[in-house]
Each structure stands twice: as structure tokens, then as C-alpha cells.
Amino acid sequence: MLNPSGHDPSQSYEQGVGKLTGSEHPPVNYHGYAACTAGAFYREPELAGRHRSVLLLLRGDFKQARNAFRVLKAHGCFVGISFKESGTHQIADQLAHPGRLALFRELAANADLCLASTPELVPLYASVSRQVVQIPTPYPIDLEGWDFSLPPSERRGIFIGTREFDVPSRNHLLALAAVRTLSENITVIGSGPRTLRLIKTLGFPADQLNVSPRLGYPDYLRLMARCRIVLQFDQSFVPGQVAGDAAMCGIPTIGGNGAIERLICPWLHGHGRTFSELIRLTRQILHDDAFYEQQILTMRKAALESISFASVREQLARCFPGATRSPG
């Protein structure tokens, strides 16, 4: 994986993924592509050029990506490309500038492969390239030490999944307002004075709402794991990190239309369902233990088949030369 001049430091998974700490980026989302194949995540093209195959992430104005692409090809690498931020609103923002759109088309046409982390990106890549694959972002749910789930009897209330109040398609305030009358404990991640004022304006009873500051990834998962369900109304068509996080906690996620929730929560995702339907499902899963347990089993089976490290590694191996190593 190469994110040229990105913010995340270089990180190797050649010796495995290790244990979850707060100091390194967890092996999830786009880092997961590198982690599940015992690869590495880089900022510098020269370091990435030592590998046989590289997935190059597009970000910013794409000029760094174009320069990196040339370096990788000079090293003889097989180069795939993918957007680092791939919600539909993020893609629209990135490609709104003619210069960036032209650079994207150049890179997609010359790359050996275009990888779509969501179904919605396939037509965009296919408009330029004939070599397009759709592969979800992986999560280490099949690795020892990465199960954060608690017994169902120890789970309480609703975790509101998305944290971006300022992105309209996330529908964060709508989700919070909808659960206002459910008489359930609500946990939400909120930061900044404006966000806290918005939450306060909804008028939740003091004993119903837990507003947590932003947490490191291990503490964030432990907080999520104490809840019975994860709810979001996100309509951004993102890869679905919140759903992937919930899968590691063994918790069904209701609502969002991301790629992962559509794969692992077929009866609960928000694609094609109204918000009223989602609240009805929320009530059912909160109070019907048999239905709840059924959703947990469905999610676990589907997640192992689609987003586990073993599953995604097998998918990557079909199209990236050398992408067959297991991180152990």
C-alpha cells in the first residue's frame, strides 16, 4: 500500500499484525489490504517500489500520486489504484476540479488495475479502465486476539455510529433525534463545542445520553462493545468502517448503506429502507432476543466469508501478483 506524502507513518505487517495498541494504525480499512497479505503501508514511493505489487491511494490533487506512479513503474511494479476517501460525497468533491479529473483519468487508464472498495465506484473506474475489481476493505475478525465481543447479556443500549456532524449525508442528527424517544441508553462520540451544543439542543435526559470524547482505537472498540447495537443513518455509500468495527465487537449494525453493512447485515442495512423502517428494526432487535441472536450469527458468517483477512487475501491474490502471504 502506498499513500504518497500521507499523514500515516510507514508501517510493516510482514511479521504479523500484533496486538491492538493506541500507538499504531490498526490493521483495518485500507491498512487492512496491506495487513491481510503480510505487506506494508508506506508514504515513500521508493520504499513501496521494493514490492512486486502496490496499491496506490489517490488523495489531494493527485499530483503526488502521479509522481509515485512513475517511480513505481520505473521499479517494475504491478500498480493498482484506489481512492483513499471513497464515499460518494468525497469522490464528487475530489473530482469537481477539471485538473484533478484529468489526472484521475490518466492514472486509471495507465494503472494495471483499479480497485473499488464500494460497488458505487465500479462504473467510475470502468469508464476509463477495463481492469476493475471490487474488493471490500478487510478486518481481522478471523485472527486470534481480535475478538472484542462481550456476552449479549452484558450489552446495553445504542451506539450511534458516525461522528461527522458536519457532513449532511451522514445524517448524524437525524439518527440521534430518531432514538430520542426509545428510552434506551445512547452512546455517541462527539467533540468540539459546536457539536456538544447541537447534542444538548436535542434535549436528551441526562441519564440517557453518554457523550464520549474521541478515543484511541482500542478504547473506542471497548466502548462500542458494551452496547447492544450500532445505529447510523449514513447514506454516503462509504466502504463501511463503522460496520467493520462493529463486526469485531460482534454487534449488529443497523442503518448505514456502506459496502460492508450491505455484505454482513443483509436484513438491517439502510440501502432501500426508510428511516422509519430502520427505527422499527431497531426496536425489534432491542427487545427480541431470538431475532438479535439470529442477526449476530448471520453477521458473523457473512463477515468471515466477505471481509475477514483470509477472504480478502484470497480475493486480492486473484488480481495482484504475489498477494498471497498470511500475516499469521
Task: Tell me about this structure.
The chain has two domains: 11-139 and 308-317, no CATH class; 152-306, 3-Layer(aba) Sandwich (Rossmann fold), CATH 3.40.50.2000. β5, α6 (122-126) and β6 (132-134) form a beta-alpha-beta unit. The protein is globular, with a radius of gyration of 20 Å. The chain contains 14 helices and eleven strands. It has helices at 29-35, 45-48, 63-74, 88-94, 98-110, 122-126, 172-178, 193-201, 217-225, 241-248, 259-264, 275-287, 289-306, 309-317, and strands at residues 11-12, 40-41, 53-58, 78-83, 113-116, 132-134, 158-160, 186-189, 209-212, 229-231, 253-254. With 328 residues, the chain is an alpha/beta fold. The strands form three sheets. The chain has a five-stranded parallel beta sheet. The chain has a four-stranded parallel beta sheet with strand order 3-4-5-6. α12 crosses α13 (289-306). The mean pLDDT is 94.
